Amino acid sequence: MRVEAKLRKDRKTKKLAKRIMAGEIALINHIDIDEVAAKSLVEAKIKLVINAAESISGRYPNAGPNILVNENILIIDNVGEEIFDSLEEGDTIIVEDGKIYRDNELIGEGELMTSDVVAQKTKHAYENIGAELDRFIDNTIEYARKEKGMILGDVEIPKMKTNYDGKHVLVVVRGHNYKADLQAIISYIEEVKPVLVGVDGGADALLEFGYKPDVIVGDMDSVSDEALKSAKEIVVHAYTNGKAPGLKRVEELGLKAVIFASPGTSEDIAMLAAYEYNAKLIVALGTHSNMIDFLEKGRKGMASTFLVRLKIGARLIDARGVSMLYKSRLKLKYILALIVTALFPVLILISLSPKVQTFMQLVEIKMRLLLGM
After folding, report:
1. Membrane spanning segments where (predicted)?
2. Assigned fold of 148-324
3. In this model, does residue 308 exceed pLDDT 70?
């Protein structure tokens, strides 16, 4: 297969997906391409992916490569850092049989990831999942000991202007199947009017559906400027030492932010803040809640998530996968019954009309004459 197109590159796939154009080639450096990243590239309608790293390392069965090849987007895999550095944004390159050319010069090559290759590597990854699970559990327990202060009151909750007291809070993360799940609960949003909290890119998910986030929580690495400017309040997730790299970006936009220093993930502190400020109910959508989710995020354990959910308890409802819970299907007999029911009063009114009665009598006479009755 021969592909010739303009190249765009970024070490952060989620950043690249926002600016790459349809028909272009994506150059990334993304070990174990995750589902969300793959779907964002598919939505961008790219031609090809060149990955400096291994798209499937074998540590766990990540879904990203399979999503790409199923959409007929081939992957030239594991080309190396040298090729990543040598190719420039905007270069027009030719890719043929795994080889990469620029100005008729061979730049390098990688493994062509066809559907068969992806299936084989994914199968091998499934065989390794047991050992990875052991390491994941050990890390979770180890970090839970260190981070137990999250539920014992050792983490200071910053003062916020958003009023959570007695309200429903919807925490949106741009995770697995988030669009379908968000679509499924639109009626809930419209009726209940919950406090809308976007975790980084989750704020953009809310904007996609026409909602402005009340609060944005995160390290500000995957949220758009538009979303940041639309939010009523911004909470920057900082390291436990108080350092908050994401604050600089917020300040450069001329915006103010609250600093929340805490271990764990941004979605954890988003839910923790809602809980501590007495939210009546916390609905989590698109959040990361299993081992594969956390491995895709590059985390070795899920201690903070375990601890926060343990603390919040029954006040938390996980809406992940809600779109798959029930899919209504109208059967033909119900549709016919609706039509008959709707037509019944119309037919009665028509039959009572003098003009219609006269017309029906004429039809009856005509039929009698034709039949010789």
Report:
1. 334-352
2. Rossmann fold (3.40.50)
3. yes
